[in-house]
Design a protein that fits this description.
Elements: H1 8-19, H2 39-64, H3 72-78, H4 83-113
């Protein structure tokens, strides 16, 4: 039992007609050198390949530095913080304590008036 479409004959004929090259000598812009690469193109391709290799190498270095998880507990277990983190934390604590002192001074003045 075979199934044959009745329209395969006209479709195949149309495909053969469309696939033929024109006989007038016009080959559609595909001259003698069509599809051939120049040395400049080959050099450009090599430069792109080297650039991609360096980008992949850099990306793998950066990906190795990413921690396995981004939980807050994992960073505390790794070790002492850097000096920059300590100084930034100390500066933030100083700012917070000054803000609390100003807030308390403002609240004390309001309580005395009442």
């Amino acid at each position: 039992m075979s199934f044959v479409l009745p329209v395969t004959g006209p479709v195949a004929t149309t495909a053969m007609v469309l696939a033929q090259q024109p006989g007038s000598g016009d080959n559609g812009g595909q001259g003698e050198d069509f599809g051939k690469s120049s040395p400049v193109g080959f050099l450009l391709l090599l430069i792109f390949l080297v650039a991609v290799a360096f980008l992949v190498r850099s990306m793998t270095k950066h990906l190795k530095r990413i921690p396995a998880s981004f939980d807050g507990d994992a960073s505390a277990k790794e070790g002492p913080p850097d000096k920059a983190e300590v100084s930034a934390g100390a500066a933030q604590a100083k700012i917070d304590s000054e803000a609390e002192a100003k807030a308390e001074a403002g609240n004390n003045g309001k309580n005395d008036q009442a």
